[in-house]
Specification:
Elements: H1 5-16, E1 32-37, E2 40-41, E3 45-47, E4 53-54, H2 56-68, E5 71-76, H3 82-87, E6 93-99, H4 102-105, E7 108-115, E8 119-124, E9 140-144, H5 148-157, E10 162-166, H6 169-178, E11 183-187, H7 188-193, E12 204-211, H8 214-217, E13 221-226, H9 230-245, H10 248-257
Parallel strand pairs: 1-5, 1-6, 9-10, 9-11
Antiparallel strand pairs: 2-3, 3-4, 6-13, 7-13, 8-11, 8-12
Helix pairs in contact: 2-9, 2-10
Length: 264
């Protein structure tokens, strides 16, 4: 039986001690992977009271690494610098609730999606507001900079609303509470499970529909790798399919949100 080149390399690795690049459950997948994430985007990725990284993105990353048989470490990076950090080889992949968009695809390569949720606006419960050009005219909207939500709100409502950008989503919601902005727009699950579930969030609610137009929000949330890293990208794709098939994905999603957020 003829062996492929990867099979021959794997055989040599077994004979002489497997190198990191060829270890793991999947042939040819790396044995060590460094994951870049923001660490400031609860409940998807954040640093807990114990100083450890937590959240859905982190749980998914660990499950994918276990599926591949790889040892994973994490590096935190501010959102605005997270793609430059990847391309500077500070880490091997980004798992940080990053939307797959054409603009980002010019700088990195993406896996298949691992979840898909809409963006929504929130405001004070007693505010009567329509999410439209006329309804948002003169309003101040808070949004995290360098996000798909920022691109969306600037393109869609930038001519009529005042757009205030922030380094983190939490800074935006703090200004909502203090009255410095009238509304905030972000991922609906992030807002529902994070801010709206908090004590401060009890006076606020969703306004208007969800938004998921691919023009701004792409095809969902994916894992970013450096351009040309096709082997690593396909290892992640296979692992995503694997944890969905064996029920691991659903358990993680249910544990974090009480529902499956993979999306249709």
């Amino acid at each position: 039986m003829r062996r492929t080149i990867p099979s021959l390399l794997a055989a040599v690795a077994v004979a002489f001690g497997a190198p990191a690049a060829l270890a793991g459950n999947y042939e040819g997948c790396p044995a060590e992977i460094t994951i870049g994430t923001e660490g400031a985007y609860p409940p998807f990725n954040y640093i807990g009271d114990d100083g450890e990284l937590k959240g859905f993105d982190v749980d998914i990353a660990k499950a994918l690494c276990e599926e591949m048989g790889a040892d994973c470490t994490f590096e935190t990076q501010s959102w605005s610098g997270i793609i430059p950090g990847l391309n500077a080889k500070k880490y091997d992949a980004i798992i940080a609730s990053m939307s797959i968009t054409e603009k980002r695809d010019e700088k990195v390569d993406f896996t298949n999606r691992y979840y898909k949720t809409p963006a929504r606006f929130i405001a004070a419960k007693d505010m009567d507001v329509e999410i439209s050009e006329s309804g948002l005219e003169g309003k101040t909207v808070g949004v995290q900079r360098a996000t798909v939500s920022a691109d969306f709100v600037k393109d869609k409502f930038g001519d009529v609303a005042n757009i205030q950008t922030y380094d983190t989503q939490e800074e935006a919601t703090l200004d909502l509470v203090s009255g410095r902005v009238d509304l905030v727009v972000a991922d609906a699950v992030k807002l529902k499970e994070g801010f709206l579930a908090s004590d401060q969030g009890q006076a606020f609610e969703f306004k208007g529909p969800g938004f998921s137009d691919p023009k701004w929000f792409g095809e969902g949330i994916g894992i970013a790798v450096r351009e040309g890293e096709d082997t690593l990208r396909e290892c992640f794709n296979k692992a995503i399919a694997g944890i969905r098939e064996d029920g691991t994905y659903d358990k993680i999603s249910q544990d974090n949100f009480g529902m499956n957020i993979y999306g249709g």
